[in-house]
């Protein structure tokens, strides 16, 4: 019986081997993308099994705070503070009363840089930039409307403590025709070219200036007293931080008078001109914000350094660079640079060495070097 049982077992085994030999191979089903993503998420959520070491973050933070505090105190004692007094209209009007009055007249006439700038301040086109007939300024529109005659001259004068003579001059100017205003302003501007200072007062030749002379004289007195600075600052919240109007007013003297202007003198003395990488400089020769170096670099190379559309071109370049950096993981070739140039393996060489030592060595294979 035992022999019969063994003979039957041999036949069954041989038949099974024959069937397995001639059977069709089992098809291998590749996992779907969804299952692969599910497996990756599960792997990411799994506890860390790599090397660990003790780390006292409170101790590290305390040491860093003490070191920075000591360095700050030592450097402050050695180099003092780089802060300088703020630039004000009061200082400008006191230092250059005639030039201040010229700029105030251009604001009243509507011929200043701010008056002819364009969006976002008005509908003019003096400083509108475009690329192939595409203008971001015009697309965004006038978001911060400013009428320079009202904002910089008439409203500050009307808000001040007016004497009867000034109030009468303002009414006369506002009720006059546009042609009459233009004649007064033109005659006054011609006379300013021959003006002289006598006892801190502007003396003009005789002429028909109408109410313009009284208005601009009062505006100069207000500016010298510091009242115009307060009038031009927007008080829209508890903290007064909107200095758009005083900056525009002072900035209008830059192109009109160049380095001779008060604003031009301040900008040049503090190394803040565009040719000096002024967007990123701090006051004086102190280093500026490093994250702006890449942005201001484009203003130093052609064609941006001389193009009237330089700002728009720089914005477009930086937008393209930012998008390229954002989509690095999705750009073929660019995303493979770390694999072609494995600098990260040199930086984290200790980690790769430890992981290589932990890998089991398969008989007949060479161990990984970890490099």
Overview of the molecule:
This protein has 371 residues and is an all-alpha fold. Among the domains are: 89-244, no CATH class; 336-371, no CATH class. It is built from 18 helices and 2 strands. A two-stranded antiparallel sheet has the order 1-2. A hairpin with a 2-residue loop joins strand 1 and strand 2. Helix 5 (97-109) packs across helix 7 (148-159) and helix 5 runs antiparallel to helix 9. The chain is elongated, with a radius of gyration of 38 Å. The two termini are 66 Å apart. Residues 1-17 and 367-371 have low confidence and may be disordered.
Which secondary structure elements does this structure contain, and how are they paired or packed?
Blueprint: H1 2-22, H2 33-45, H3 57-79, H4 89-95, H5 97-109, H6 136-140, H7 148-159, H8 164-175, H9 178-192, E1 196-198, E2 201-203, H10 212-225, H11 227-232, H12 244-257, H13 262-269, H14 293-297, H15 310-326, H16 337-340, H17 343-347, H18 349-358
Antiparallel strand pairs: 1-2
């Amino acid at each position: 019986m035992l022999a019969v049982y063994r003979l039957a077992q041999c036949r069954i085994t041989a038949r099974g081997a024959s069937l397995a030999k001639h059977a069709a191979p089992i098809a291998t089903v590749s996992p779907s993308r969804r299952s692969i993503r599910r497996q990756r998420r599960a792997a990411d959520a799994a506890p860390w099994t790599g090397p660990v070491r003790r780390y006292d973050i409170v101790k590290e933070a305390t040491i860093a705070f003490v070191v920075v505090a000591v360095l700050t105190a030592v450097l402050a004692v050695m180099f003092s503070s780089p802060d300088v007094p703020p630039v004000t209209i009061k200082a400008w009007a006191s230092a250059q009363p005639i030039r201040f009055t010229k700029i105030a007249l251009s604001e009243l006439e509507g011929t200043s840089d701010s008056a002819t700038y364009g969006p976002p301040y008005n509908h003019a086109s003096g400083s509108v930039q475009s690329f192939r007939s595409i203008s971001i300024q015009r697309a965004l529109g006038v978001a911060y409307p400013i009428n320079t005659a009202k904002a910089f001259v008439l409203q500050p004068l009307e808000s001040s403590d007016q004497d009867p003579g000034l109030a009468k001059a303002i009414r006369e100017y506002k009720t006059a025709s546009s042609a009459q205003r233009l004649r007064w302003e033109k005659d006054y501007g011609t006379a300013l070219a021959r003006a002289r200072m006598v006892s801190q007062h502007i003396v003009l030749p005789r002429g028909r200036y109408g109410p313009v002379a009284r208005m601009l004289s009062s505006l100069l007195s207000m500016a010298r007293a510091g009242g115009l600075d307060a009038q031009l600052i927007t008080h829209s919240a508890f903290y007064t931080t909107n200095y758009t109007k005083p900056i525009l007013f002072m900035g209008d003297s830059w192109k009109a008078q160049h380095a001779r202007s008060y604003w031009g003198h301040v900008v040049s003395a503090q190394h803040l001109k565009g040719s000096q990488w002024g967007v990123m400089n701090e006051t004086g020769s102190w280093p500026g914000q490093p994250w702006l170096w890449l942005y201001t670099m484009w203003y130093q190379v052609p064609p941006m350094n001389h193009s009237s559309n330089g700002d728009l071109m720089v914005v477009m370049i930086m937008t393209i660079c930012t998008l390229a950096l954002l989509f690095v993981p999705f750009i073929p070739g660019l995303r493979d640079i770390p694999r072609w140039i494995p600098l990260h393996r040199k930086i984290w060489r200790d980690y790769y060495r430890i992981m290589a030592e932990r890998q089991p060595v398969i008989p007949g294979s060479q161990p990984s070097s970890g490099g």
